[in-house]
Please model this.
Amino acid sequence: MFQPFHRFIEVGRVAVLNDGADKGKIAAIVDVIDQNRVLLDGPCTGVTRQAYRIKNLHLTPLVTKFPFSARTKVVRAAWETDGISKKWEESSWAKRMAMKEKRKALTDFDRFKLMKAKAARNKILAKAVNIKKKNMSKAGKL
Model:
């Protein structure tokens, strides 16, 4: 049977925190407290073990395996054996978040330099395209 949804709230599911002091960090679900809250632990990302609202989580496709209500030491061991931190850093989601943070930290002068660099790149690109068009039209292929 076809299942349209694949990311379930389960023990070992890695999630991105979307609220509070640890916003933007990832942690693993250790236990489900009730229908609104889960117990999270992020031993390798600096997220302390805490109850967290499910509404403030974004579930990732990453999952690690450990028993429910496992201690931080067990969660850390599973996290490191599965290489969750490395997999997260390689994901496009993490790269996009890092890019947003980098853009947010730009100064006025940095934004100006970026604008000038983009203009120079576009000028080079337009020149190359025009040369190619000219050659194609001379050859009668355009």
